[in-house]
Fold this sequence. Notes:
3 helices
Amino acid sequence: MQRPLEKQVSDEFNWFMGVQEMPHTSGISYPVFEWSFGAKDGIKGGTLRAWPFQGILVFEVRGEEEKFDSIKIALKSINEYGWGEPPHINEVLQDILETKSKFPVRDIEEAKQVFKELRQKWQTLVAS
């Protein structure tokens, strides 16, 4: 896993970004883009994950999850906490739409290649 990167929101709070791996029952693994909002002292506020296979955003705070298929609605919920917009959210969602348009694929090898390309794009975003 790549080291999470920070985007400073204030002097005390940041968005942390990373790319996680989700194993699938087919034997392949696909990337999940993850943002965590928290304080520099390590206190975590919440997590937003972009799931490319399902094409949804999942926002988790205090063990409760909300699922969204729209950036606008997800941001409305996040803004209720005053956390601002996660970095690169528009690019990540655009990548998900592009990835979903490539399915169904012919075989597992093609699926692996599609997810490899997505993973590389997202790792580049995290590093930027």
